[in-house]
Fold each of these.
Amino acid sequence: MTQLMTGHEARRLDDPPDVTTRRPLRRNSPWTALAFLLPFFALFVVFVIVPVGSAVWASLHRWSLGLPGRPWVGGDNYAELFAGTSVTSVEFWKGMQATGIFSAGSAPLLIVIPLALALLLHQKFPGRTFFRAVYFAPYVFGVAVVGLLWHYLLDRQLGPVNQLLRAVGLPGDIAWTTTLPAGWVALIGVTVWWTVGFNAVIYLAALQDIPKDLYEAATIDGAGAWRRFLAVTLPGIRRVLQFVVTITIIACANMYGQSALITQEQPGTDTRTAIGFIAQTGIEGFDIGTSSAMSMILAVSLVVVSALVLLAFRKVGDLEQ
Amino acid sequence: MTTRPLSRRAFLGALGLTALAGCSASVDAGGARDQAVFRPGEYRGPQVRLEFWNPFTGGDGPAMGEIVDRFNVAHPRIRVVMTSLPADSLYTKVVPAVGAGEGPDVAIMHLDQLATFAARGTLVPLDELADGLELDGDDFVPAVWRNGVYDGRRLGIPLDVLTMGQYWNVPVLADAGVPGAIANGAEFGTTMAALQDAGIEHPFWVTPSWQMFASLLPQFGGRLFDETGTRAEIASPAAVAALEWMVEQISSGVSPAGATDPRPPLKNGSAAVLADLPATIPDLTLTAPDLEWGVAPFPRIGPEPGVFANSHHLVLTDQSQADEDVAHAAQTFVDWVSRHSEPWIASGNTPARATVRAGEAFRSSPQAALATEENFAATVFLPQIPQSRVIAANSWQRAVGEAVLGGVDPTEALEFAQATAQEELDETNELLKS
């Protein structure tokens, strides 16, 4: 044991801390934890609390950038959006709907496919590390690269995707970037291809944490592969699964770049997401008040969805116990 | 040991208050100045630095870089630092950047954006400056000069004019036995038929090009807004006819459906005729050096002349007027660039000044074919309406996309666009009044 100790550890054990010159670290004091959390909390305040607070404040004003005057309008911006009669509100809810369609299509795939992939990559087989890298590789691209790349790959007339489909005798005349529902298939497909590796890596780490003896015990008890998955794997990764579900839904709901670059929000503005319309209203249209109100509605919707996910996982956990 | 009795709740509360205090700070827009003050003569003061923003991120960037380099050499006391940003990015950043005094002193903006940024106090009117520099429009394309005015005030000095044009593959048209430039709708029909007979399945690709729609609209006798800028006229019979013409090219098979990029098929020979802006010229020169192509004004498809036009304008921001030296140097730069825009010919655009167009450099350029008096007279600029691009994106430009790509009936798409545009126009005008 002693020979395994580093010099630093050995010295610390040999000389007890000098209480007279240096005060001991007060491990049990709540201030210790707070003091260590403070640096990050300062960043959190500057980059999260203050911006969110500013957005709430802005959403309560009629504020158009560059115009004099910024009258307090209370909940008028929200009332207008919820009334759903003005052009802005109709377009916003259309964007929310587009976000919903995209999330409903891509989140389940991004939860299930990476799990299946992680189970495969968790097996022992030659080339395992290579395949782990291959599936993660697209994730390193930025959205601009992915967007431009697939805009060309999916082009109806000139894109290699349709040419490949034709080559294997499938209908190769699909307008992936300009019609619905093909546009959604394209956006969801590209997003799954792009981010599948990220969730897979998280699952993989969780799978590696499940003790092997649990599987051995289950096998001895006569459990088949499916039973082992349900009884050992899923409960073993429950916390991680909850985390993956939550961040995946949030990431899907924040989709913007893919529809801005791949489908360019066509046809018309049908693939313009909530974030796309918020950006257009606030950043291009300088309507800070209304766009802040939209952001708050989107954010609160995401909080509600996340809370539902949390509750659902608790419910399932309770049923199991 | 004594611990100060600061409870955890109080500690967190104090942090929260600090955060809220931060929320109330925000950037205020400064009051816009009435006019940029004219200062006689070239700038001769101490060394000064000018920030110059432009949207020239494509083949036009090096051409503007050349002009700036020449200016810097000729003016050792002024150092112009050029920043090229994608147009969307420039237009989103310029208001807060100028408001904070960290933006450009001089910028290039599209003519149709002047009202938007004048209304927000980002631009400073240039009437006195233009008078002082003795710029009265005489040397400029008249329509371009006339349209750089919003609310009775001049907001920019035109650098160039760009119009929708037609580009064609010379050998392919020759093989099909049809002459180069298409003059009108009837010729368009015969040319397309001849090209299809010669084996070009889709000779002319129609994309959701709002510039094409904005060219066809005046040809059928329509306009987007009335002259007061308060009424939208987007669902007129002329507008329906213009949009129907675009859709017909797809339904008749002249164009494939679902096309979004019209230039690659011209370059690779799958199309023979293209309607596009002059940015096509440096693009074809650079990326299709073996293609033999021609260029001419956009054909007159409808009964009247008309072609979508825009222009890059030199503008001064409100920020430039805060410092007397910067203001004088900025005036010197704008005046000099306007008079020495020869290198700009490489961008494919047509210089706005007749004296520059008279030079050999321009007369031997491809776009000289677009610089005819007839084409200048046919130009139709988007009207000076604040927020026009946001309104357009939600209304008529979107209707073009819906009809061309989404299969929506043109009348239906335009009627929806009309209602949308009118409401947003009313909202904007009300906001500006209040």
Amino acid sequence: MSTTTAGAHAHAHGHAEAGVGDFISTYVFSRDHKIIGMQFLFSTLLWFMVGGLLALGIRWQLAWPWSGMPVIGPMLFSGEGGQISPEFYTMLFTMHATVMIFFVIIPILAGAFGNYLIPLMIGAEDMAFPTLNMLSYWFMWPAFLLIGSSFFISPSNGAGGGWTSYPPLSSIPEAAPGSGSGQTLWLLGVTFVGISSMMGSINYMTTIIQMRAPGMTMFRLPLTIWGIFITALLQAFALPVLTAAGLMLLLDRVVGTGFFIPEMLVVNNSLPASGGGQPLLWQHLFWFYSHPAVYIMILPAMGMVSEIIACFSRKPIFGYRPMIFSIAGIAGLGFIVWGHHMFVSGMNPYLGMTFMTATMLIALPSAVKVFNWLGTIWRGKIQFTTPMLFALSFVSMFIIGGLSGIFMAATTVDIFIHDTYFIVAHFHYVLFGGTAMAVFGAIYFWFPKMFGRMMNETLGKIHFFFTFLFLNGTFYPMHVLGAVGFPRRLADPYHYETFRHLMPVNQFMTLCAIGMVTVQVVFAANFLFSIFSGRKVGRNPWGANSLEWTAPSPPGHGNFDFQPVVYRGPYEYSSPEVDADYYPQNQPLAQKT
Amino acid sequence: MLVPILGVWVFVSAAFNWWPFSGGALAFPGEHWLPHDISVHGVVIDGLYYFILAVTGAIFIATTVAMFWFLLRYDGRQNATPVKFIHGSHTLEVIWSVLPAVTLLFIAIFQMNAWSDVKIQRPLQSVGPDGEQGTLDDVFLPPLLEVTGRQFEWKIRYPGEDQEFDTPDDIHLVNDLHIPVDEEIVIAIKSDDVLHSFFLPNVRLKQDVVPGMKQYIWFEATETGTFDIVCAELCGWGHYKMKGRLTVESREDFERWLGQKYKAQETNQLSLELAER
């Protein structure tokens, strides 16, 4: 099924003797899933840095509004005396969210880890459609360029409608005078991200269904693969809606149609809209994708965390099937809860009740997963390695993020906390405390497989400890702000007397955020240093069970130097059938010595 | 290695549980909790908030303590007992599915009435000739005033002496909203341009205003004073300064204030007309 190219083959032997053409086909336009995965990994990590710096800009303004940013301020906004202008502030948070969601979390989970792990974990030599896979990476580049140019080329001209881009603000150019072409480029960029994800998801589904090694039944798949599989389903069903809605918004903006604009609407002396549309329609269509997208951003992370926790507890995952059913349950319910973003939007309040009940129920599979993780570490032999620490912190942060979700699921309470920092706290706990921590754990965990070398454990633990500390210092107080009613997306919240006393809290949070970004330097140094001079390891440094650990580190083209045959599930740690405390999936039934 | 984990865990649980109740373990100045409530329905919302806080707080403490205990007890370096080779427990799965399900559904159903009071059951002036509530001949309480969101201000309109909107004697104001205390009032809200959100933190009320839609909100304030009107939906670069002021006063003060505004506006119109002649 896979197409082998001479260039890609050279990878297994190193690229020293390969020519320029070979280099390009091996490392640039590669069709090897591992290279594509790493391309995604490096691109997204770079964007992660950009997104983090954008966040610091936001935090600076909230802690010391209208005061000049040291060093960076005079360079960026010399015109305003180093201050962040309110227009620029709206672009900052729009771009922070866009970069983090569309360029970091979704592609790092599906693109980087999905690509890298699927064939290795199911025992295939590559993806089902290698060329499509390559295209899914290269279709990210138009998005990088479009959204990047919307903001970074002329920072006064970026998209400023929030990552949700609610019309009419986003559809009538006059409504946000600064964002002229920026908003249009932004919409085009998001469309390209959608195309890329769509290609990826089709490929993942096909590969997982069609290319499993002999003996690898669906219920012997690692939970990571289950997470990615269900994520791919979500993307395949939800993305077309966003793409269609995005094109409609683009038409509204450029051609003058009126899908989302009521008749004769005049904003800031614009021409009267041809109209006949409804702003709420966009919100429905947008959240019909973007709520499932919330789960796209967490399900693969949940899978990877299960992998790490089982491995370092030296114990089978507790409730393998309930874990799968709860992933499926989250995904299924995820399609009927989008309205909980719209409780106070003007949507029929009767609908609010329906969406609330569905939303409450989605907390159930999440709770089941947490209990099963706790069940896994119970009576194990826990090894506190760096990946394990990150995985455990995922669980604890996810508990906080999950529980705070119940507040906003309750429609009545949501009336008050909607669009306040309580919401911001909630999704940062889930996305940073949850997904980003899981991603860090996963990088530490699979790094030896990717590069054949270990990352430094001491530096890893320093990275973990300070990230964990500062993440709570930054995001926990957001709950407190939200409880006071502190709204999001205000360039200067202290304009309201009600919120003036919260400035010291914000300054504390900003200091923590600066600390959090700074400590990532340790990670970057550890990562880059270890690629070239980390301790060399063999195939299975962690003593793990799943198939990728039986391949060479790093695996060559075609992945396995033997045909893997699977005899059991991936979590048979400390099985009484063997002496070792692990029992690889492909090891034939052993006689106990 | 356990020491830092322990320390961090203490930090997190401290953050989650002590801050709100003791007013700040890190000693931040001022109020750090739900703002002062001046509405009738706010009591219910706050109660629900604290109820959910208690439930989720208990779950958080329980799961965290359990996790903590497991981490200490089953630390691979000190723990001599062999790993329990177990794949799960059907009974446990059923228990920990049913218990949260019941709790969550309870919260969901428990708060439906409050939601209905705040957003669905618009106050009535009378139940109509048939004497029954919820029938077609119910007469709604008419709006006391109309608020229109516009980049970046709140336009306020009172009906004037004829008690009817869209007549020449409407009173037009900007960002200055007065209402009588201890009366259930209805406000019509709409938008002139983009989305805004009419947010009264102290009244526990928030409603997006949508161009092309006219909506009604209602509440009863129980205290006099002045409070902020906040825009809570991104509406452009000036979103942060779309600030209004809500003044709750006695019926007499309110009437007097409205009368003054009416007189001031009519005088101006009259004098303008006179000047033109």
